Amino acid sequence: MSEALINASAAETFTEGDRADADFGHVLGQGLDASHGVVLYVEGVSVSFDGFRALNDLSLSIDMGELRCVIGPNGAGKTTMMDVITGRTRPDAGRVFFGQTIDLTRLNESQIAQAGIGRKFQKPTIFEQLSVFENLELAMKADKVVRNTLFSRLSSEQGDRIAAMLEQIRLVTDAGRLAGELSHGQKQWLEIGMLLMQEPRLLLLDEPVAGMSDEETERTAELFLSLAGRHSLVVVEHDMAFIGTIARKVTVLHEGSVLAEGSLAEVQNDQRVIEVYLGR
Hints:
Radius of gyration: 19 Å
Helix content: 25-40%
Distance between the termini: 43 Å
Strand order of the largest sheet: 6-7-8-3-9-10
């Protein structure tokens, strides 16, 4: 299954049997409890691969509506952290909670997507032989199974949602184009739009501006800033100019742990960060 379908098919694969389960049904049926103001808790998580410790007692939390940037050298554990949050990798130790009650370590990838977490990978995973409009339609959160989505009539409300999303991701004039004909930056925006159609509470974005032009990068920054508050965003990125445009709080990872955390200015002036990452 393609990465795009992992999220788009979540409603189909999360069956009524799953909902009735004493654990999953109880947890997800109550919805997200973020009464403490925190949407994600990562507590003491460790992951090892063939003796290499990718995460080492990692702990961090993300507030509701927060836009958090995560930086660090290659091998710092950024991708593994996102793999754990989205169910791709099971931790050897530690806990990961979505809100107060949803234990993500007990759910699979589709169930986590259904719970309200969307992930964008570095390489766009869109359906290139479908139009921009059809990609958004396919990704729309709905009770219909994915295979029937393109063959059913859209309600006026659904049509309005797609129209609003096209406006938000600045692809209104490209709605009828095949997705494969878009520029690299436009493909990235389309995938973000596909994730947003599923109404996630938390978005994980892996190097979203890699390969973009300066203009596309600027527009992406504007998009992310417009999303903060309505969604929580975790942005993993190496482009420090882009980070400087959007960052309110920055977490620096090193050797699988949090090395520093604070404003961009604070972490840029942290001697430990300079030594292991910024190199100046």
